[in-house]
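Hi X.,

You mentioned you wanted examples for the new student's onboarding notes, showing what a folding record looks like when two proteins sit in one file. Here is a clean example. The first protein comes first, with its sequence line followed by its structure tokens.
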Amino acid sequence: MSVTSGALGIIMLDTTFERPPGDVGHAGSWRFPVKFRQVRGASVSLVVRAGGEGLVDDFIAAGRELISEGCSAIITSCGFMARHQRKLAEALGVPVAASSLMQLPMVEMALGAGLRPGVITYDAASLGPQVFEACGADPSVPVRGVPAGGAFHALIEGSAAYDHKALEAEVIDAARKLVAEHPFVGAIVLECTNMPPFARAISAALDLPVFDILTLGEWLFTSTSPRTFHRAEQSAL
């Protein structure tokens, strides 16, 4: 594998809803170059609820196209693609992170004794043990989903207009309920890549650190684009 700085490649689901700054699919969310490639037919329902079966080869092809365009690391626009993390990483040959949930083991190690991360997800019913196991995470991690008939689902699968206030209220409510049910939660990991615009509000409301696809993407890409440091020249005596 040749590791060179370039851009972060983002493999996108086949969606059309609005993606404001903070969303994985908005170039302004990132502090370095990014490139996008959409997988035709990769609907939210197919990836989230049907496991993305039959789409893995298409995701690999999209990843290879991004690499050919200079991308040195790859992520995806849906946390449920964690199911195929190993296949994607083996096929693409550059650092790949299919889901923000891959941060769970590291976050758990970073927390104090007795504390655990908790997950806010787009669809709790579909977030089974196999997804966590594919990330190397403990399947017993506490999880709370946004409501099936709520603002997130209306936006992503119902073609509703982007309602920042309603979306923020919904995800904060989910986070509060998660912590109320599991007082030992010491950090939040957002599975859904459309939730980072609300990470600051969640952190402020719960006084907890929040991890998401942006924190993962920054970590992953900077591994292939290390900073350059220049030693200051000593002044002549």
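Then the second protein repeats the pattern, sequence line and then tokens:
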Amino acid sequence: MNDQDIRADHADRPAEKIRILLADDHALVRRGVRLILDREPDLEVVAEAGDGAEAIAMARTHDVDLAVLDIAMPRLTGLQAARELTSLKPGLRILMLTMHDNEQYLFQALKAGAGGYVLKSVADRDLVAACRAAMRDEPFLYPGAVTALIRNYLDRVRHGEEAPEQLLTPREEEVLKLVAEGHSSKEIAELLFISVKTVQRHRENLLHKLGLRDRLELTRYAIRAGLVEP
């Protein structure tokens, strides 16, 4: 097989599918949601659960990339299951699929580790896009949820509470900027007149405080925070 044949062979292979765990206590709802997801070439429901406890058990025995959870379920709710799954499988993405257009549920879902909140009433329109966004580590919220988040942020600012940007100390912000600009730990140490070990400690603190995983995510955060040009 020549190089051209190899390239053609790779081009013909389908992209790896996103493996989905679907949890809802209503079998008819699961069937409908599964139809929406399975008809997409890049999505596949590989496990189903009827409640939160079963969802956790399924996550232990199946290789899944994304969990789509109903909020109101027996034994363990979707919110409780999301917290358990986040701890059990830190790399697992989570979406909440719910009938509740409710700010309290929304904020609880985000705190539990969900990256998106989709209403069942518009699942045929939004769910596929939400799944793909989750796998890109992008949040997905319906318009009313975005409004709630903005209102919550403005209320916190109005009451003098710290904005997220103020989570970092001035020194951590300096280190973050230099990391995002591509400087090594040794270069940052020399620029700030601190030890390499101190630089590394600041980097670990940044990752922990911001809930990020690596240098690339730190760079993206620095761009969003206006510390460096994109």
